[in-house]
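Supplementary Data S3. Sequence and C-alpha cells for construct A.
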Amino acid sequence: QSMGCVNSKTNEGIPAIEAEPKQNDVTASQNVDFMGNIVFLQKVPLLQRLPPEFIPVVAAALEPVNKKNDEMVIRQGDVGHEFYIIQSGKADVLVDSEGFKQKVASLGPGDYFGENALLHEEPRSATIKAVGSLRLLMLTSKKFQDLGLRSKLQFAKRKAVGGLGPAVAPR
C-alpha cells in the first residue's frame, strides 16, 4: 500500500479526529449565518440608528427561530418576553375582536413585533401566524435590557404590529 492509503476493512491507520472536520463545518456555518445576520440587520430600518459597531453585538444576541405554515409565533393576550424581527417569509397579524380573529396586517422581511412586551411588559396585542415558511431572529427581554436597547432604539408608536409607516422617526 502507498503511504496515504488506509485499509477500509480494518480501519487501521485512521486517526481519532474524525469529528473535528464536522465541528469546523458547524463553526464555519455559524460564521456564515452570523455574517449574513449582520448584513441583514444593517438593512432593518429600526436598527439603522444604532452605531455600526453595535450591529454585531445585536447579531450575537439574536437567536434564530423557524416556524412552519400556519404556526403561531405569539398569541394575543399572552405575556411576552421576546422581540422578533422577520428575516425571511411572511406572517399575518391577527387581532381578536369580539371572538373573531381579524387579519389587520401582513409582515415581511425587516418587519418586527413584540416590542411592547419588552418596553412596557404589556400582554401581546395581536396574534402572529406564519404564512408559509418563516425565519425569525428573536431577542429575549433579558438580552434587550443587557444591551441597553431601550435607550438606543426608537420604536414607532402603534397599537398592533404591522408595517404601519416608518419603523423609526425621521432624523
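Construct B, processed identically:
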Amino acid sequence: SFGMKFTKCIQESMGDVTGKLRFSKRFARESVFISGHQVDGVNVVPGVVILGTVWNAAGTITESERLRIADVIWRKPLVIGRRPRRIAFVFEPSPDGQSYSFQCESEDEADIEIFASGKVVCDGELREQPGGMDMDILRARCEEMIGGGECYRRFQETGLLYGPMFQTLQE
C-alpha cells in the first residue's frame, strides 16, 4: 500500500529541550517520487510525500489510531537540486495533548526555510468522506475528451512534468 512506502522515510528522530519532537528525512532528486515530479524543469517534492511523512512521523508519537491532518499551509515548494537536502519535521504537542502542530523545514542550511505547516489531530473523530462523483455528468460537461497521454503532453507544454508513477489519468 502507499502508506507502507513511507515507513522507511524517517531516518532520525529526537526530542529537544523545548518539548518539540524532530524527525529528519533526506530528500534526493533520484527518488522516483521527486524525479517524476517537475515544475518548469525543477524537481519539487510532491505535497502528498510531505503529508505521508507527517502522517508516519505522527503515528510514532501518538497512540491514537485515528489521526487527521488539518489546517495545512503550503508556504513554498520544496525544491531538490543536485545535492540532497535534509528536511526536519517538527512536532509540538498542544497543552491538552489532543493535537500536534507541525512544521516541515530545512535542516541543513543557515537560514531555516519553512515549506509547510499544519496540525495533526488525535481526537478519534473522523470527518465524513465526500461522496463519489457521477462520471457521466462530468463527461457531459466536457467540451472535448482527450486521452491521458495527450493530457500529460499538454501538462508538459505548460512546464509540469509527471513521471510514469504520477500518470494515472486514462481519459
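Strands lie at 12-15, 21-27, 37-39, 42-44, 68-74, 79-80, 85-93, 99-106, 114-121, 160-162. Residues 47-61 form the longest helix (15 residues).
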